[in-house]
Specification:
CATH class of the largest domain: Alpha Beta
Largest sheet: 7 strands, parallel
Number of domains: 2
CATH superfamily of the largest domain: Glycogen Phosphorylase B
CATH topology of the largest domain: Rossmann fold
Distance between the termini: 6 Å
CATH architecture of the largest domain: 3-Layer(aba) Sandwich
Helix content: 40-55%
Shape: globular
Strand order of the largest sheet: 3-2-1-4-5-6-7
Structural class: alpha/beta
Strand content: 5-15%
Radius of gyration: 21 Å
Length: 403
């Protein structure tokens, strides 16, 4: 098979695609990842072939982003979903994605929730397409409800009948890395109308001892991370210092990662209980952590749950982070501080309760067990193969021989 994965230039969005892309490569299939040109380096490091499309021009996205600070958390999210992801991002990427689908002729397209140009290109050329969730299914349904107008505009650009892209969105086969007990914990959201498949990528076990570089090993270890993006967004640059100050008196060893965009030396004097580094392998830290304070990003949230580590969530800048926090709290695997100003300080204030009450750790372990019960991403390869439309012998048929 030829399989085209498609994503925006965001680590949190490409992350849920990677287990499936790697599984397809391991199964011997021809894989390319369509992504903005600026994401070439990240895909190269991941060992995946890049099919580039245009980044959104700064003159289009700049005015949209400039207006966000004056909006409420909810209003800003709606604008980003509708105007950034569904309109300017999708229209910027559309020409190259149309060319890639027309010339390379993938047998199936796998897109993440926020990438819509590949949906239009797949529908234009009659290629089966699949939706890989970048979080709880509630995120995808919220997203779909906000993009009606730009989705219709995108359909017109490729000559599709009115309503076709909206219908195609609802008919997609869905791949998810979230167990049902977590997905439906906060609110019951119907699964996809077509087919819904859940998987889990097992975490490699480690016997490595807890590093003394991470602080006093006689104290519980609290991992603090706000992902790889927060440090590069000026309005959120202060969250690291805010968290350090709020946790200075906690009877625990605080290990904070700030991302490669932040110099730990620029944070000023550290509390006696804190260690700050740019990056560490998350699984290695979580194997020893007693609790986590995070921003609700999908990778960090699910990483803690897979390790059975309770967490308190401080949503920073997108509605999916708030949703993830709500689901973590609803399943009893942690707490959420709620979105908006002061969320980091509120979250830090909840850590003593998280550490003292064993029910939160047990809730996280329940989710970890549910994740382990799911099939591996390799099983998704047969799902994708089952969507391939067989055609009579001809120019496109040779590469289907191994499907």
């Amino acid at each position: 098979m030829r399989i085209l994965f498609s994503t925006t230039a965001n680590d949190g969005h490409v992350g849920p695609l990677l287990p499936f892309a790697r599984a397809c490569v391991a199964a011997g299939h021809d894989v390319r990842v369509a992504a903005p040109s600026s994401y070439a380096g990240a895909l190269g490091r991941a060992g995946l072939e890049h099919a580039p499309f245009a980044d959104t021009p700064p003159e289009l996205i700049g005015p949209i982003m400039a207006g966000l600070p004056a909006m409420s958390f909810e209003e800003a999210d709606e604008v980003v979903i509708r105007e950034v992801f569904a309109r300017v991002d999708a229209q910027a990427g559309l020409p190259a994605l149309l060319e890639t689908v027309e010339s390379w002729r993938p047998d199936v397209v796998v897109r993440e929730s926020a990438e819509l140009a590949s949906l239009a290109a797949a529908e234009r050329y009659g290629v089966p397409h699949v939706h890989a969730c970048i979080g709880m299914h509630e995120v995808a349904t919220t997203f779909a409800g906000a993009i009606g107008e730009p989705l219709e505009e995108l359909g017109r650009l490729v000559g599709l009948p009115e309503g076709r892209l909206a219908a195609a969105l609802g008919e997609e086969t869905v791949l998810s890395l979230v167990p049902e007990m977590l997905d439906h914990a906060a609110r019951e959201v119907p699964d996809a109308a077509h087919a819904f498949h859940r998987f889990h990528e097992p975490v490699a076990a480690t016997d490595d001892p807890r590093s003394s570089d991470w602080g006093n090993t006689d104290r519980p270890l609290v991992y603090v991370t706000f992902g790889s993006v927060a440090g590069s967004i000026p309005p959120f640059a202060g969250v690291f210092r805010e968290a350090l100050d709020a946790l200075a008196d906690l009877d625990a060893s605080i290990l904070m990662t700030v991302g490669r965009a932040v110099d730990p030396g620029g944070l000023g004097p550290l509390p006696a209980n804190a260690t700050v580094v740019q990056w560490l392998p998350q699984d290695a830290v979580l194997a020893h952590a007693s609790a986590m304070l995070g921003h609700g990003g999908f990778g960090t949230t699910m990483g803690a749950l897979a390790a059975g580590v309770p967490q308190v969530v401080a949503p920073l800048f997108s509605f999916d982070q708030a949703v993830n926090g709500e689901h973590v709290a609803a399943v009893g695997a942690g707490l959420t501080a709620g979105a908006g100003p002061g969320s980091v300080s509120r979250a830090a204030a909840e850590l003593p309760r998280l550490l003292a009450e064993p029910s939160y750790a047990e809730g996280a372990r329940r989710v970890a067990r549910a994740l382990r019960d799911l099939p591996p991403p390799g099983d998704a390869v047969s799902v994708l193969a089952g969507l391939v439309v067989r055609i009579p012998p001809g120019p496109r048929s040779e590469h289907l021989a191994n499907c």
